[in-house]
Amino acid sequence: DVKVTQSSRYLVKRTGEKVFLECVQDMDHENMFWYRQDPGLGLRLIYFSYDVKMKEKGDIPEGYSVSREKKERFSLILESASTNQTSMYLCASSLQGLNEKLFFGSGTQLSVL
Amino acid sequence: GENVEQHPSTLSVQEGDSAVIKCTYSDSASNYFPWYKQELGKGPQLIIDIRSNVGEKKDQRIAVTLNKTAKHFSLHITETQPEDSAVYFCAASKGGGGADGLTFGKGTHLIIQP
What we know:
Number of strands of chain A: 11
Low-confidence stretches of chain B: none
Largest sheet of chain A: 7 strands, mixed
Order of helices and strands of chain B: EEEEEEEEEEE
Oligomer: heterodimer
Distance between the termini of chain A: 37 Å
Helix content of chain A: under 10%
Mean pLDDT of chain A: 92
Order of helices and strands of chain A: EEEEEEEEEEE
Number of strands of chain B: 11
């Protein structure tokens, strides 16, 4: 069965900390995505990657960076966490040429204090 | 870019009744319209999708309709059951295999009253 695994379900960090959110997929998918989910705002795309070492900015990339060193792993990095980055973060993957059919992880609820 | 509006934000229906969620999109080049269901504590999961060359698609109790002229599409759930309670997201895409993903609506919280 298709699986996207996010390393942490809940995470609490302090303002200014560097934060790493990890995502692994076991489906050999080319495309991987990071979304942020906030009440009343829906899902907003932060970054995506269509190949190893490739990355593209989404709609809200400010304050974030990503890393994709291996096909199965896509990391989201908060260089200096701020309180307005408190949110639910969702990782997703899809096959090349079928970018619309996303498979999501269960999410990481990040709280920045 | 694409803009997707979704209504209502919250919908409460009696068990057994039908539920309808509506979305509009702005980019006439969009040609793929999926619906995702997010249960509590889980990530969204694709439940049904439609492409612009089709006006309606059904899968058991759920159906999606598309009006390209008016640029709106709807999700219909008949004979609602408690397990239908969730947040539903519509989305739109230009397809073509590009890696820029989907534009999502803000979501509808569907509550099924026993």
